[in-house]
Specification:
about 45% helix; single chain; about 260 residues; six-stranded mixed sheet; alpha/beta; binds 4-(N,N-dimethylamino)cinnamoyl-COA
Length: about 260
């Protein structure tokens, strides 16, 4: 598949998608959004891939939705046009998605990061929801996912008063898993993803699904969801292999089934 606004690359069992509109600080226009999710879904279907990394460039992960593209939109267009629904496609990705963030992650860029499963931030990463400065509010989940992740008061400050978070603050408040030097930040994220991609694929898939249930429902329902994902793993060859390998004091050899 040839894309015009994203680059794709495979390293071992990791699929990398790089946002590639540097002239616009990687702002998401309709084309880039579609290509981003097409590329992610292709990696998700590829059994040689165990985890995904999405990144931008050193200066900008993504500066949000393309303001020039949406400046004249009507509410009707915002509701009906495909570019709005498309943001939800990330929820269908079954494999772990790691955001490798350097520079600006603003507006929809920050919201996309919040929709990923884990975040590796370079020391220059900056996260913010500046929509208020252009007369709107976050529309791709920022108010909800940020509030769940970092709490209400700081979310209010970010959303209402354009407070940005540094990489160190993102780590402190649980938005980033690790902060790494700018130089080599993508390699660090890929190494992190490679470790995840080397684990038992079905268990990884069930684990992601179960953790996500914690954000969708009550504790009682969430515990049921966890059980629903736990028991079937005992029908996989990888569970037998994993436990036998432990007993035999050797490394497991995963089959992905
Ligand atoms: N859109 C379009 N172009 C952008 C852009 C953006 N978001 N951000 C930057 N650019 C363009 C600039 O216009 C400039 O283009 P030229 O003038 O050279 O043609 C070029 O990128 C370089 O930007 P700057 O000259 O401004 O570079 P600086 O280093 O001075 O500043 C910056 C970098 C990232 C701090 C600044 O560019 C900036 O503040 N950008 C805008 C950030 C922002 O306001 N983002 C929020 C956008 S609103 C929804 C889903 C999603 C959304 C809404 C609804 N639904 C599903 C309902 C999302 C909304 C948003 O994200």
């Amino acid at each position: 598949m040839t894309y015009t606004t994203v680059l794709t690359e495979t390293r071992e069992r990791v699929g990398i998608v790089t946002l590639n509109r540097p002239q616009a600080m990687n702002a998401f226009n309709a084309t880039m959004l579609g290509e981003l999710f097409d590329a992610m879904e292709a990696f998700d279907k590829d059994e040689n891939i165990g985890a995904l990394v999405v990144t931008g460039n050193e200066k900008a992960f993504a500066a949000g939705a393309d303001i020039k593209e949406m400046a004249d939109a009507t509410p009707f267009q915002m509701i009906t046009e495909a570019r709005v629904d498309v943001w939800d496609r990330i929820r269908g990705i079954k494999k772990p998605v790691i955001a490798a963030v350097s520079g600006w992650a603003l507006g929809g860029g920050c919201e996309f990061v919040l929709s990923c499963d884990m975040v590796i931030a370079s020391e220059s990463a900056k996260f913010g929801q500046p929509e208020i400065t252009i007369g709107i509010i976050p529309g791709a989940g920022g108010t909800q996912r940020l509030a769940r992740l970092i709490g209400k008061n700081l979310t209010m400050e970010m959303v209402i008063n354009n407070r940005t978070l540094s990489a160190a603050e993102a780590l402190q408040f649980g938005l980033a898993n690790r902060v790494v030097p700018v130089e080599g930040y993508l390699d660090a994220a890929v190494a992190f993803a490679e470790e995840i991609a080397s684990r038992a694929p079905m268990a990884v898939r069930m684990a992601k699904d179960a953790v996500n249930a914690a954000f969708e429902t009550t504790l009682t329902e969430g515990l049921k969801a966890e059980k629903r994902n736990f028991y079937p793993l005992f029908s996989t060859e990888d569970q037998k292999e994993g436990m036998q390998a432990f007993i035999e004091k050797r490394k497991p050899n995963w089959k992905g089934k």
